[in-house]
Amino acid sequence: ASFDNSIGHGDNTSLAIANTSGDASFGNYVKRFIPKQGYYYEMSGWIKGDNLDPTSACRLRIDFQTSTYPVYGRNKQYLASILSQYTAWGNKENVPLYCGEFGIYKDCYDNNKGGLNWAGDVVDLLKQNKIHFTFHSYHEDAFGIYPGYGSLPNPNTGRTELINLFKDKLK
Predict the structure, then answer these.
(1) How far from 19 is each of 3, 11, 50, CA to CA, in Å?
(2) Using one digit for the tens of pLDDT, what is the confidence trace for 26-41?
(3) Which of 106, 115, 129, 130 has the largest count of CB atoms under 10 Å?
(4) Helices 115-128 & 76-93 angle (0-180, nearest 10)
(5) CA separation for the pair 156, 70 (Å, rounded)
């Protein structure tokens, strides 16, 4: 089978599977999540078939899986499990680690989306593991502590909650 994500249903993020005579499927393991009891989940999509055998079946499917490894939500435990892979390597190689930059898009701080918690969790874990770091970015619109380009940071327009988080965590 061959894969091409440049053609599809009116955009450039579709998936096309071509030239196969057997089972052809695509899984997206990046979009994993832990389902919660009592919640409703919906999946939708668009499928187009060309030159299909009359006995062919095309369908969207969601799979629920189990794991022999710990399964984490998008939380501090999850971040710690990812970071542990790097700290294990650093310890094995006896080298210091440096997180060149981390940050989160400005809208993630709005409406209780969790951006401030995430930033605090990352700082806690980096400090706990003695990893030096740089926050991205000090002064820019999309990620900055202070928004704005081409001018000095304005103390009146800074992201106050983020500034206070860093003041508290980096005492």
Answers:
(1) 9, 22, 11
(2) 776 666 778 888 998 8
(3) 115
(4) 30
(5) 44
